Amino acid sequence: MAVGPPLVYADQAYSIVKKKDSTGFSRDVCAILLVISQHYRCFFWLGDHFEIALLVQSILMILAQLALLYICIRYRPSTSPETFGTSTRPLSFWQWPTYSQYIEFLAGWILCLAILILIFGRSQIFVGALGFFALGLESTLPIPQLISNYRQRSLYGFRSSTLAGWFGGDAFKTAYFFFQKTPLQFRVCAIFQLSIDVAIVGQRIVYGNAPPVSALLAQHDELEQALILSEE
Predict the structure, then answer these.
(1) Contacts of residue 219, Cβ cutoff 8 Å, sequence gap at least 6
(2) Long-range contacts made by residues 70-76, C-beta under 8 angstroms, separation at least 24?
(3) Where are the beta strands (DSSP E) in the chain?
(4) Lowest CB count within 10 Å: 13, 16, 200, 206, which one?
(5) Cβ(227)–Cβ(170) under 8 Å?
(6) What is residue 220's predicted lDDT score, i.e. its pLDDT?
């Protein structure tokens, strides 16, 4: 329970480094895990001491996602909004050009959460709401990838091992939560997350993993530039 979920992203990170291209993997997955889910879950533990294994899992997941985020930024595709400055999000949220901007944001976010816990940490209503909020948003983890797959009509760049890890891990943890009788928040959100995994499996069957048009155009442009340079 503690080590398995973070290791799911190891093969995804290796694939991105090997190809030097993060096309196909949604960085918003990192946003959900870093900005919302895992930090909220850690603070939830301060008010409601669930199993240590789940707390350790959250800490290891934070470290894994920080590393994966760095890799995604370093090898982001040439067609990304940061490259052209075309982000349509307010304040270009989670589409910043440098890794340090992400770290600065996360540091400020953790400070705000710590202040809220110090003020309202003894309120059972606040702690319960925090748990539902953290785990509810964690259950939306596969949704950005689901949307990205739909837009590309392909699962290119999204490793089958990551999908298998999501589906297998979520199926296991759903059963685990029910057998261990963990807080209701864990069980409800695990069921929802597993249903999204099933939808992505369906996309994998329908769309396959052929390169999308955007990736083919980027490769064509890079080839043309290389030819021009060789001629010079």
Answers:
(1) 211
(2) 70/99, 71/13, 71/16, 71/17, 71/22, 72/16, 72/22, 72/25, 72/27, 72/30, 73/27, 73/98, 73/99, 73/102, 74/99, 75/16, 75/17, 75/19, 75/20, 75/21, 75/22, 76/22, 76/27
(3) none
(4) 206
(5) no
(6) 46
Q: How far, in whole angstroms, is CA 121 from its chain's centroid?
A: 27
145: tokens are: 């990838």
- Between these two residues, 230 and 73, which has the higher pLDDT value? 73
Rounded mean pLDDT of the chain?
Answer: 80
Q: What percent of the chain has pLDDT over 70?
A: 86
| Amino acid present at 106 | L
Contact (CB, 8 A) for 69 and 102 = yes
Could you say which DSSP state residue 33 is in?
I
Query: Which of 206, 210, 204, 207 has the alpha carbon at shortest distance from 167?
Result: 204
Query: DSSP labels for 35-80?
Result: IIIHHHHHHHHHHS---HHHHHHHHHHHHHHHHHHHHHHHT--TTS
Q: Quick one: how many helices (H) and strands (E) in the chain?
A: 12, 0
Contact 201, 163 (CB under 8 A): yes
User: Would you say 154 and 212 are in contact if contact means Cβ atoms under 8 Å apart?
Assistant: yes
Q: Classify each residue of 151-160 as buried b or exposed e, where b means 16 or more C-beta atoms within 10 Å of its C-beta.
A: ebebbbbbbe
Place of tokens 């003020």: 119
pLDDT score of 213: 60
